Amino acid sequence: MTEPMDVESTVNHSETDGLCLSKENRVANDLVVSNATVWNKEDLDEVNLARKPSDSSSLSHSASIDSVMFVDSVSQQADGRLRPFGSERLLYQPNEVLYIPITQEPAPMTEDVLQDHAEVLTKLGTSSEAAHTRAKIQSASLVSDMESFKAANPGCVLEDFVRWYSPIDWLQQDVEEDGQVIKKGELSERMKIPSNLWVEVWNSAKAVPARRQKRLFDDTTEAEKVLHLIAGRKPGQLALDLMPMVIQAAVARLSNNSKALGMPTLKTLMENIITQSGKAMKSQSIKLYKELIKNINIAEVTIARMESLVAKFRSQSGQGQKDIDKFIEDVIESTFSFNKEIPEVNILGASRGPTGTVVHHLFAEAQKASRMESEDPSGSNSEEEVSKLTPRLKDFPRPSAREYILRTVVPRPAPYSRPTPQRMFCTLMDNEFRLVGAFSSDTTFQ
Q: What Å distances lie between residue 114 and 111, 401, 405, CA to CA?
């Protein structure tokens, strides 16, 4: 296989990737088997001469080996050799070169397969026996590599395998003997632990080349499984599988924009969205996705409004930036669906303050643009020509209604009564008017 499976993509992409890997794996296996190099002793005279037997005979270690097993292993025919492992030799056969075997590629797993595999391992428990069983389940690739190594290197021992497979577990040090400095090696401490899994697997592994082993990745079965899943998937399930990627892209975009604006309320909303997105993508619940999309919509609208206000107010304000920022935050706070306690926003300094000045300027510009469009729809005349042809208009548009509020505190119903508040509200429009009064009286001293 040329590339590992990408488990960070969607399930559909992983399944398609698995189908492609199945095809590549079949082609690669056929190519390796057909072009495998058979390394015979006659073909390696130059390799054998590159390093004298005496150079490697100084390597020693603390392991022991049964002589009967040693003789049986030597009598085996080497098979499945890929290439020599540098100039290394077998520890118990200094005249034999250490070969890298042809091994199987580990089986790729999609996201759903990984999740199922993790659930199986979790259900085993936390006892020592469960841990040992869990390690055996996960050692399928190790067993395959050991069998391939034994087939490629008859007469090898576990130390030879460790030197190639896990060099960090082969400890070497310089020792002086008979006036000469030689290197001695031994297994690491973790390899010497009683009931070590590697020792158990090594003792049970047989010398079987990779092409004769049971396939770790059955490309035919996996390809058929993927095709079956794709053929039976409904459009709704396909859309649901794509939701995590869409949600992730949306949250990432909103998060970047919210950080640039730096509003506390927006930060809180984004934290809630991130938490909800994790729960929704894990459970794949349509109800949770609907709630999440609703909050994403609120955040998107809020960010767009805030960017618009920032562009309009900060570009026009020369001073009073602190008041401008406070006004923008209050406007955004009042627009949140979950915040209805701020019906109106106060403008500090009214029309003479920095915020009021910007509002006045924005209305004046809007009036000017409206006047130019109404007087010259084609846009052929300049702004100066239009202003000469039309009378000067006010900065604010014509009001749609006028409101009058009268408040006072007077004694009622008698002059000696306690003063009580009185209020009258009046609205005047083109075709109607409204008049509302709220009057109070003293009920004690009438």
A: 5, 67, 70
Sorted by sequence, the CB contacts under 8 Å of residue 414 that are 6+ apart come out as: 442, 445, 446
Q: Which of 425, 424, 418, 416 is nearest to 443 (CA)?
A: 418
pLDDT tens by residue, 236-290: 877 887 888 888 889 888 888 877 666 777 778 888 889 999 888 888 888 999 9
- C-alpha distances (whole Å) from 19 to each of 13, 15, 224 are 10, 6, 9
Quote the radius of gyration of the chain (alpha carbons, Å): 41
Exposed e or buried b per residue across 172-189, where buried means at least 16 C-beta atoms within 10 angstroms of its C-beta: eeeeeeeeeeeeebbbee
Point out the least confidently predicted range of 40-44, 70-74, 104-108: 70-74
Q: How far apart are CA 62 and CA 263, in angstroms?
A: 67
Question: How far is 91 from 187, CA to CA, in rounded Å?
Answer: 13
3-class SS string, 167-182: HHHEEEEEEEECCEEE
Q: Record the pTM.
A: 0.47
Nearest to 59 by CA among 86, 89, 100, 97: 89
How much is the pLDDT for 67? 38
Rounded to whole angstroms, how far apart are CA atoms 360 and 351?
Answer: 7
According to DSSP, the residues that pair with 426 across neighbouring strands are 404, 435
